[in-house]
Every structure is written in structure tokens, then in C-alpha cells.
Amino acid sequence: MSDLRTNPIPRKVHHRDVLQNFWYFTCASSNLKAGAMQPVTLADQSILLGRTSQGEVFALRNLCPHRSTPLHHGKFDGKEVQCLYHGWKFGADGRCTHIPSLCGGQEHFGGNVKCWSYPCREAQGGIWVFIGNLPEDKLPPLPLVEGIGEVHPQIYCSVSYPLNGEHSAYTFFDPSHVAFVHSSPFIRRRSHTIRTKEKHFIPTGLGWRMKRHPAPKNNLLYRLFGKNVTTEITYLLPGVRIEHIQGEKYYAVGIATIAPVSDGETIIHQAFYWNFPYLGPVKGLLRYLIRHFLTEDRTYAFLQLEGLKQNQPFMLMGDADEQIRWFQQLRRAWLEGGSLPEGFVNPLKEATLHFRS
Ligand code: FES
Ligand SMILES: [Fe+2]
To answer: Whose CA is nearest to atom 4 of ligand 1?
Structure first.
């Protein structure tokens, strides 16, 4: 988990519910070794993530059903988690396998004891946990990156924002803040150099997509991809942004996701995949730049937080803020559809937006 999580996080700000019945990216695969367990918080729920010695990932409620001791204080032998307090043991599916205090003839008391287990999947170097109440056979697919296969990201980082999931996601589709917030030499757009943009969007599944278009030429990073570099960006509920950058020779894909911890904290997970053969030596520099970029947003989130506490309604302005309206409409449509995939109707229409950024 990010070292940035050590800063104090103000509590209970601008409450919005976490959308139910979605997969949430919870941890990078590389951060959970075989035989390890790790507590995480998602949607105010304390969850114990673990990986068995066979390599399978699992997620249990991090609370012993006996007398509520958090399970992460206990031991894990790669197969079973043992609670610290009275030694109850649980398998990776949450089933209680042993209660040391039971005498012969009392074992049946333990037969149906189960610790709540969450659907948990691993793909493309990420571990996702399902928050909701759909049965196993109704679970939706993970929001994976198409076209790259089962690969691990070359770069992964996470940063904690002091906002709820909805506010944290706004930064994914807020073009007008970039010139004022981001200062990296590779992403720099000074406020006096902003220019008019025209972008075309189509609704898609659980969100919308910025149609493929030429990448901005002033961004030095794009020059690495060769000629005719284009980008396409997809935004999905509950807060996922997938950007495909494609040049004549190389591609890169970035996926950013929100993991809402509480009303006052959200972890932004960012992973990058690419097919460049020669970027290994500069991976450290790229990771630094990406973390720098996310941390700039985080710094401004702390500044905005001072005002959000006043609960003033927003004044969304022009096309630049249209995507925030879309995200709000999508969230409403999800809730009105009973938070169920079959009840959801995407309310968005194809659109062209004009804004300066
Ligand atoms: S509280 Fe966990 S075994 Fe008693
Ligand atoms: Fe930003």
C-alpha cells in the first residue's frame, strides 16, 4: 500500500454511498505473496485479503465470528487462518475448520460456522473484490483491459485521496484542472497555453468513451510511440478510466480505478501496461512521474476538502464539466435500476464537447 497513506485523513466528509454490485480493484498482485494475508478497508468494511500457498487469492470479512477479533492479528499457514484469541481456524472459503475448545461430541456446533467471504478474483496483475450481494453465477465480468491478454503491469502505484469515491473519480474526467494542477515536464500545459479542443464521445456499457483521436503533440511522452499516435479513453462505473495509447510501433494502456475506503478516503490505483522493449531502465523514472502526477491531484484534493465541508452545491460549467454530469447521471441510473446490471439503462447519448484545456 502507498506510503502516502500515513497522512491524517479527515473523517466523514460529503457522504455519498459506495455503489454496490461492482468489482473494486483492491491490491496489486505483486503486493500479496503466497502465504501472506493483509487487511484492507473497502466501503467501510474491513476485509482480510490472502493468498494461499497454492497461489489462490481470497477475501474474508476481517472479523472472527466468535467474538469479533480482527483475523489479521492471527496466523496464516498458507491454508488456514487462525484467530489469535481462541484459536478458531478458517479455510480460504471462510468455512470454520477447527474450534479448539470443543470436546468430543460437540463438533457439530462448529459444523456450520462460516466467516463471511467476498468474491475475489485476480487478473492482469490486480486483485479485485466484489462489493454487493449478487450470487456467484450472476457476478459481472471484471473491467479488464481488452486486447493485452493476461499480463502484469509494468508500473503500478496507488495514492490515497481524502475524498469519497465519487469526488475522487471526478479527477479522471475533469479536463480543465490539468493546466492548473499538473506541472510535470512531460504533461505540462501552462494555463496561458490552453487551447480549444473538440472531443467526440459515445455511450458504452457502464459508461462512455472518448473516441480515438490523435494524441496531443506537445506531450513529449507520446513521441515514444512512433508516428500517428492516437488515444482512446473509456470511463466506466463505479470509477474506472482506461486509456489506450497506440502508435505505429508501440502501445501503452493505463487503467485507473477507485477503491472507496470510507466517506473520507479513497485509494486511487493506477497500473500501466506497454509493449516497449527498451523501457526497463527508465521504469523508476516513469513510476516517479506517475506518482508525482497522482500526488498533485491529491494535494489539490486536500485543498478542495476545506471547502467541501461547507456542502455548497457545485456550479458545473459548460462542456468542460459535462463528463462530471454524465458520471452523476450514470450513478443515479445505477441506483434507480436497483443497483443491478439488468436494471441499468445507460442514459447517455453520443455527443461532441468543446472546451479549453
Ligand atoms: S474471537 Fe476469534 S476465536 Fe474467539
Ligand atoms: Fe489530475
So the answer is: 86
